[in-house]
Amino acid sequence: MTQRLGVVGHLGYEGLTEVLALLQREAPRHGFTLRYEAALRESLGAGELLSSPDEIDALLALGGDGTLLRSARFLDGASVPIFGVNLGKLGFLTTCSHEQFGAAFAAFAAGDYQIQSRLTLEASTRSAAGAVGVQLRALNDVVVHKGGVARVLRMRVFADDELVGAFAADGVVIATPTGSTAYSLSASGPIVVPSLESLVITPVAPHTLALRPTILPPETVLRIEVDELPEEVLVTADGQVGTSLGAGQHLIVRRSAAPVHLVTLSGDSFFSRLRQKLGWGGLADRDG
User: Fold this and answer.
1) What is the pLDDT of residue 164?
2) Please, what sign has the CA dihedral across residues 212, 213, 217, 220?
3) Cα distance between residue 143 and residue 134, in whole Å
4) Pair 101, 226 in one domain
5) What CA dihedral angle connects 129, 175, 202 and 197, to 10 degrees?
6) Does residue 268 have an active-site annotation?
7) How much is the mean pLDDT over the chain?
8) 89 pLDDT band (50/70/90 cuts)?
9) Which domain holds residue 12?
């Protein structure tokens, strides 16, 4: 049975050409037809155009974590698995490195893989009357932070309409377990195993020692209000898309009904990724 494989790629990576050549050679042998995003198709000068998630059964993301996050945004909630190939340095969310792609693609074609469903977020700006404004979707995190001003933000965070805390900080990160190893981690947030569905609130440089990152149940509805709005308060999703929070507006963040599905291969695990890519581990080996 023919499977339709979408291809999204970052044109800035040198290894992209090599991976594409292997893919174009091997895909027909394994019963795949290929569709390329517009920029990739233009670079190749040939191939079918990928314009909608409805056209594919799986999506190949060639680049790094940023490319995979962009791929998830393209799917916009569609239940299509993402096979990520790391062409960069970290690639924490990807399925394999470009050196491993040949063997990994053969395993994928043979059905020798697993699918991990990852919790995602949806965020929306709201007026004081509750009217919905801009809506965003995120796999890693939604961040409220200041724009080009030096002032800190004075914020109040509510969980299911109960005040969690009022504080001054550079911003706040609302992360998924997947995003717990991204911006939230650099802001001293906890590492959360992806299978433990939850929401993580991590203040960014809070002006108090009495405020710590907090893990909440996945169905919690969060509301973030900013007092005394400076010139610009930004809301970003996965660090890639965003909007601004205007006077009289607040932000609602909740679990999205549509998870993202990531392809993983046999022998891969969350802790092996932590050890290999983030230097996680115990004591170094020593003599004696």
Assistant:
1) 95
2) positive
3) 14
4) no
5) 100
6) no
7) 92
8) confident
9) 3-118+259-278
